[in-house]
Amino acid sequence: EIDQSLVDYDLGQGQLSDAKKRKAIEDYAMVKAYLHYRSEGYNVEDTSATKPYDLVCSKHDEEVRVEVKGTQLEPDAITLTKGEVDHAHTYEGRVDLFIMYDIDVTDANGKSGYECQGGTAALIGNWCPDEHDLIATQYKYCIPSIQLQRLNMA
């Protein structure tokens, strides 16, 4: 039998197998980031569905693009997509990394999934991840068809 804790968590930020729980944590972190930047006087737009960053925050002539991460764990490592890293490396303006960690997540007795509360907010301003801080955890392998040997499994 597979230990569910091995399925639910990987190194660092943790890879939750429960999509509803993962979504609740992401949404909670987004709300906290939104509230933080609004309290700093920014107009905030959610771009997470269409861009490789989560928020665009603007104030006067200033624009800040924000990548938001949420986790129940301590933030010793987080999971980033290639698009998030590429954007942070190539965008000439300011990119911030907002991390909401140590989030308390409880089951809402099946009513609405999960409820999040607490946690600690952290910010890396003018974020551009150094290559030596990035660890490849997946690769896409394009299989050469000439090397593929089909098996008869019937």
Describe this structure in words.
With about 150 residues, the chain is of the alpha+beta class. The protein has helices spanning about 5-10, 20-40, 80-90, and strands at about 45, 55-60, 60-70, 95-100, 105, 115, 120-125. The longest helix is centred in the first third of the chain and has 21 residues, at about 20-40. The two termini are about 25 Å apart. The model is unreliable at about 1-15 (pLDDT under 50).
Q: Note the overall shape.
A: globular
Strand order of the largest sheet: 1-2-3-4-7
Order of helices and strands: HHEEEHEEEE
Radius of gyration, Cα only, in angstroms?
Answer: 19 Å
**Average residue-wise pLDDT:** 87
- Protein structure class: alpha+beta
Q: How many strands, what sense, and barrel or not for the largest sheet?
A: 5 strands, mixed
Through-space gap between termini:
27 Å
Q: What is the strand tally?
A: 7
Low-confidence spans: 1-13
Our count of helices gives 3
